[in-house]
Amino acid sequence: MAVTIYGIKNCDTMKKARSWLEEHSVAYEFHDYKALGIDRAHLEAWIDQAGLDTVLNRAGTTFRKLPDAERENLNREKAIQLMLEQPSMIKRPVLEAKGKLLIGFKPEIYAGAFGG
């Protein structure tokens, strides 16, 4: 089964998610979207499946530091452009596996998805 986890290497939540996967012998590929970037197709698919409010990390420092003008009247297209320019605005981790999309990390949700 192909499992890909997207996020940022030094994020504490990412470290917890990756540790959980390793402890439960779930092989995965890690995509650091701060180092490698992310493409529009992924962002659009994630938003289609999970919703903009789930994908966009409004609570994060990067989003909060934006000028008010950039945060106001935020629609799908504007949000995608911001996330392409600054991937730190994407909630993390984003995990694709078994045709499922998991955003954020909660051990019980990962256990449900992987039977661990």
Structure description:
- There is one protein chain.
- The chain is α+β, with helices and mostly antiparallel strands.
- The chain has seven helices and four strands; from the N terminus they run E-H-E-H-H-H-H-H-E-E-H.
- It has helices at residues 12-23, 40-50, 52-55, 61-64, 68-71, 76-85, 107-114; strands at residues 3-7, 29-32, 94-97, 100-103.
- The protein has a four-stranded mixed β-sheet with strand order 2-1-3-4, with helices on both faces.
- A hairpin with a 2-residue loop joins strand 3 (94-97) and strand 4.
- Helix 2 crosses helix 6.
- The longest helix has 12 residues, at 12-23.
- 21% of the residues are buried.
- The mean pLDDT is 94.
- It comes from Rhizobium aouanii.
- Belongs to the ArsC family.
- InterPro entries: Arsenate_reductase-like (IPR006660), Thioredoxin-like_sf (IPR036249), Tscrpt_reg_Spx/MgsR (IPR006504).
- This is ArsC family reductase.
- Pfam families: ArsC.
Helix content: 40-55%
Main sheet summary: 4 strands, mixed
State the separation between the terminal residues, measured CA to CA: 15 Å
Specify the overall morphology: elongated
| Relative strand content | 5-15%
Q: Could you list the spans in which at least 5 consecutive residues all have pLDDT below 50?
A: none
Q: Which sequence of strands runs across the widest sheet?
A: 2-1-3-4
> What number is the mean pLDDT?
94
Q: Describe the oligomeric state of these chains in a short phrase.
A: single chain
Family: Belongs to the ArsC family.
Protein name: ArsC family reductase
InterPro entries: Arsenate_reductase-like (IPR006660), Thioredoxin-like_sf (IPR036249), Tscrpt_reg_Spx/MgsR (IPR006504)
Organism: Rhizobium aouanii
